[in-house]
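S.,

Sequence below, as promised.
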Amino acid sequence: MASLKILACVLLVIVSCQTTWGLHDEGPGFETEGLIPPLRNIVAVQGIVFCKPCRFQGIPTLLGASPLSGVVVRLQCDSSRTPTTVYATTDKNGYFFAQAPTNVTSFGANRCRAYLVSSPLATCQKPTDLNWGLTGAPLRFERWLGGPLWFAIYTVGPFAFEPANATECPPR
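The prediction came back faster than expected:
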């Protein structure tokens, strides 16, 4: 009788895990509803980078900011034997997606940080530390993405660049 109760509890846990984990996939990729992701998932990071207007230079806000294309973002992971660095570039909407190598898994994602590297816009060259874009942003888990390989999608930011000095801004 006791073994029947244990079996019922185990089945209940498995069913609840399948329904809970199956709800996290909202993006493109293979259908993951009802599937259980593996314990270790490959790490991928997404975010958006903006250019702040002159009037908010030095103020930690994104009011009036516009998406910045061509920005280079660095993903630095010290979770494996050898540190891993991956670079990504933003698209026309300021969006970037960086996929870590397969040796960086969700078990070590807490040892990864995302950093602003460079901006192609001459009037918006100074990286800000908004959401730790300059000192290194910790990754926030967003969702799982299934397919031939399972990914743990993390989000950082939004990040921002601003004009380097007041001379780059038009007079008020």
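The chain has a mean pLDDT of 80.

Coffee later?
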